[in-house]
Fold this protein.
Amino acid sequence: MKEEYDLSQGQRGAVIANNGKTRITIWLDDEVLELFRQRAEAEGIGYQTLVNQTLRASLSPQPMIDETVLRRVIREEMQAGKVAA
């Protein structure tokens, strides 16, 4: 190393600060990855963001939609259909 380099103020550690995310390597089926890319493009977001959202939703303690919500939505839609007819 050249003597003109002054590393006395240098610090060890990550070059890029952690923003609550961790880089990993993961193996996905080509078909799965392609579907995520297509859906993400249709939604106007990145496919990695969509993968993260999907994983979060699958880990949620409550299902995204339960029977009560489904029944309410069906009733509302049926009522709206009667009004339109």
